[in-house]
Amino acid sequence: MRSGSTDVIPASAAGPVNGPDDARTPVIIAARRLATAKAGGAYRRLRVHELAAPVLRAVLDDSGVPAADVDDVILGNATGGGGNMARLAALTAGLPDAVPGLTVDRQCSSGLDAVVLACPQVQARAGELYLAGGAESISTAPARAHRLDSGGLEFYDRAQFAPLASGDPDAGVAAENVAARFGISRERQDAYALESHRRACAAADNGVFDREMVPLAGLSADQGLRRTLSPRLMARFPPAFVDGGTVTAGNSCPYSDGAAAVVVTTLAKARRLAAHGLVFRGSAAAGTDPTLMGVGAAHSTLALLQSLGTGPEGLARGLLEFNEAFASQVLACAGLLGVDPAAFNRDGGALALGHPYGASGAVLVTRLFAQSLARGESGLGGVAMVSAAGGMGVSAAFEWRAF
């Protein structure tokens, strides 16, 4: 680790930013998102591809690249009805018929996985420019049902994430498991959630999110912010998932609709198109006990750091965007990584902004892009990390560069 550096990537891992590998180095040159809406809120009549399409169009316009130059569209989604939403969204966005699409499902990490999947395509010279991200419409997600032997239908709320014999709890119950296993009190969870709202409200009031937003359906500000929250009000929320538990509606994220997308291209092309961008430095996925699904991101981040030849001590020097599904999981992961929880989400996170499942990982990358652009520090490192249902985590490292 370079002394005094804000970069989470050691010099030995970063590689050249000028040289023969320019055609294989992936760079994000544009990133946008919708304002996140509450489920049943502003986007309640829009299907998931109708959320993704305007964001795809916006990042493409930002990059200045002709639509015909897009090699593929890769989007994450968790609750949709199948049918390859990415292809439908690409066509809805007005991309040519020749541009294909790929939909990714690793539940909450799907949007980050989509971005990560685009980067090796560039590294392998499979293509030169990709649109990647994620979208989720909980409001319009189709009902799901198992077909019975009788021919009837048995409806269910969510897919199965793990074998029942090993434990397949709902996310809220898993968050309670995490709180119990790691000794995380209700008071700590409430305090962290309040701070997330405080940061997000301050950022919104200061126009921090304005440049990353794509207005849609009259919405240009995140709907999840609760400005009236206080310690006294937080203490009044009853346990939401387990009798006598510590996880409440106050220290959990709201159900949300949203979308986010980025443009991934080669460093060589980025030099021609943009003045700056996020250089992709690596990623990792990891599995853990499905009953403790919330800590998956800690394991993927440790694996990422090992692959980059560095340790957790460097994380706090850069930008850290963690998907805050529950306060308990953030605090547990911070403990496992040896990081002060205050280092996560400097402008607030999903506890305040909302968690549109398949989009959330791409929202984290969009936030890294926006924050890096605002700070303008070439060499500034950033890590995006998401825990996913089934006991998994995905993490990715980036570095801001001026070209």
Overall shape: globular
**How much β-strand is present in the residues?**
15-25%
What is the chain-wise order of helices and strands?
HEEHEHEHEEEHHEHEHEHEHHHEE
Q: What's the Cα radius of gyration? A: 20 Å
List the uncertain runs: 1-6, 10-18
Structural class: alpha/beta
What is the residue-mean pLDDT, rounded to a whole number? 94
Count of alpha/pi helices: 12
Q: What is the tally of beta strands?
A: 13
Report on the architecture of this protein.
The longest helix is centred in the middle third of the chain and has 20 residues, at 186-205. Strands 1, 2, 3, 4, 5, 8, 9, 10, 11, 12 and 13 form an 11-stranded mixed sheet that branches. By secondary structure, the chain is an alpha/beta fold. Helix 5 crosses helix 10. The protein has 12 helices and 13 strands. Strand 3 (72-76), helix 3 (85-92) and strand 4 form a beta-alpha-beta unit.
Topology:
Blueprint: H1 11-14, E1 26-34, E2 37-38, H2 48-63, E3 72-76, H3 85-92, E4 101-104, H4 110-123, E5 129-136, E6 144-147, E7 153-156, H5 171-181, H6 186-205, E8 213-214, H7 231-236, E9 256-266, H8 267-273, E10 276-287, H9 296-308, E11 319-322, H10 327-337, H11 350-353, H12 357-375, E12 381-388, E13 392-402
Parallel strand pairs: 1-8, 3-4, 3-5, 11-12
Antiparallel strand pairs: 1-9, 1-10, 2-9, 5-9, 6-7, 10-13, 12-13
Helix pairs in contact: 2-3, 4-12, 5-10, 9-10
